[in-house]
Amino acid sequence: MVYIFDHPLIQHKLTLMRDVNTGTKEFRELLEEISMLMVYEVTRDLPTEEVEVETPICVTKSRVLAGKKIGIVPILRAGLGMVDGVANLIPAAKIGHIGLYRDPETHEPVEYYCKLPADSENRELIVLDPMLATGGSASAAISFIKQRGCKSIRLVNLIAAPEGIERVQKDHPDVNIYVAACDEKLNEHAYIVPGLGDAGDRLYGTK
After folding, report:
1. Using one digit for the tens of pLDDT, what is the confidence trace for 112-169?
2. Taking the model in full, what pTM does it have?
3. Active site residue: 18, 22, 134, 201, which one?
């Protein structure tokens, strides 16, 4: 399934992020804010259970999260910009990291770093990356995570291209994709159009 969030606050902040005149500090703050708003919706279907709790007035029954705990896995480096927004909403979540680079000869993604929580296979993992362009990196990251025994995975992206969505759906039909916008296409340099440029460069002030 692909979920596209049309919440007014998300769309407003995304428009500000697209603006070429938005500076690094504001871009970073907006990405964190949107990530928090998105994960609020991403976790809407988490199971709950009823427990007994004593309020200052009386004993009552209320609901708490049940089932699998949450894990956050940003894809380096741009995915790091989404972590704080998610962790602020789910402070008990454990955080892993995965890093990929593209082999200059085969053009295939190669894992250079992967550190996941020890109990990741028993967690609901939320994989973070602002841009879903060709889908190659996201698909590879999910494959590497699955190789470590993880089965419950959700992919959260800020902006996606149709090509990226198609690739992840083809390779991982069991993984739901959550995006704030699905843009028009990829250009000849594999950048999303209209997109917002290179998320990592804009996030960290590099070129």
Report:
1. 999 999 899 999 999 999 999 999 999 999 999 999 999 999 999 999 999 999 999 9
2. 0.91
3. 201
123 in active site? no
Q: Are strands 48-54 and 185-186 parallel, antiparallel or unpaired?
A: unpaired
119: annotated active-site residue: no
* Amino acid letter for position 134: T
Tokens 């949107």 -> residue: 34
What percent helix, strand, coil does the chain show, rounded to 5?
Answer: 35, 30, 35
Q: Which two tokens stand for residue 203?
A: 């996030």
Task: Report strand pairing: 97-102 vs 109-115.
Answer: antiparallel
Query: Is there a catalytic annotation at residue 106?
Result: yes
Q: Please enumerate in sequence order all residues whose Cβ is within 8 A of that of 101, keeping only pairs 6 or more positions apart, or say none.
A: 109, 110, 112
Residue 171 is a catalytic residue: no
